[in-house]
Amino acid sequence: MFNIHHFKTLDSTNDKAISFKENSVIIADEQKQGKGRFQRPWISQKGGIYMSIVLPIIENPQLYTFIAALSAKQAINNKQIKIKWPNDLIYRKKKLSGILTEIKNNKTIVGIGINTNNKIQTELKYKSTSLREITKKEIYNKHIINSLLNQFESYLTPLNPDRIINDWKKSSFLGDKITVKTLSKTYEGIAFDIDKDCFLILKDKKGKKITIREGDVLC
Ligand code: BTN
Fold first, then answer.
1. Do 145 and 184 reside in the same domain of the chain?
2. Mutate to test the pocket of ligand 1, among 35, 65, 104, 141 (most ligand atoms within 8 A of CB)
3. pTM for the model
């Protein structure tokens, strides 16, 4: 189903993907201007996985983000990795992977970054880790990419939002005490549920349920 295009160096696989057809996958060995959520940089040195999948527009693109996190988690196949809403893979409170979904030129671009063999910069070591650091072994990126794409495809055909959200919930941090920082406010409470729009439902101290539509969860 997917057509893979591999590049040695790109500014950003998400930006490159804009000019490609649906079902294209853009992979780069390194990115010079890797992008994260909220216009943050995504440091992308050689050794890591940097890829973007071009998909059609759907009503709720967050479903693609959920599929990407689930597929990456399944490809990595480590039970201790949890998905943190909306899109991070976390190992022992450290970030291993991030996803940036963008709508451009009437397409959805799902960008996935996974720290595999890339070096984690000293100043990020307190909050980020890599698969090589976890397993103490060299990681075969091709194997993870193939497995991720196979999982991704199985979630697309057919696209079943209930299955995606249920699988996501099973792999996530629901039930944990969390702090959520949105652009306007910080909330504390229990990660209670995910609704049908893929929004996070937080239960605060008084038992009030709050719907979080955007933001960062701090564990
Ligand atoms: C985040 O957690 O903030 C999202 C990070 C997304 C990084 C990936 S790497 C491949 C793709 N190309 C980019 O420029 N960004 C995404």
1. no
2. 35
3. 0.96
Residue 100 shares a structural domain with residue 199: no
**Do 146 and 188 lie in a common domain?**
no
User: What's the 147 CA to ligand 1 centre distance in angstroms?
Assistant: 19
Residue 36 sits in which domain range?
Answer: 3-170
pLDDT in tens, 136-195: 999 999 999 999 999 999 999 999 999 999 999 999 889 999 999 998 899 999 999 999
DSSP string, the chain: --EEEEEEEES-HHHHHTTS-TTEEEEEEEESS-B-GGG-B--B-TTSEEEEEEE---S-THHHHHHHHHHHHHHHT-TTEEEETTTEEEETTEEEEEEEEEEETTEEEEEEEE-SSSPPPGGGTTTB--HHHHHSS---HHHHHHHHHHHHHHHHTTT-HHHHHHHHHHTB-TTSEEEEE-SS-EEEEEEEEE-TTS-EEEE-TTS-EEEE-S-EEE-
CATH code for the domain in which residue 15 is found: 3.30.930.10
Question: Do 132 and 191 sit in the same domain of this protein?
Answer: no
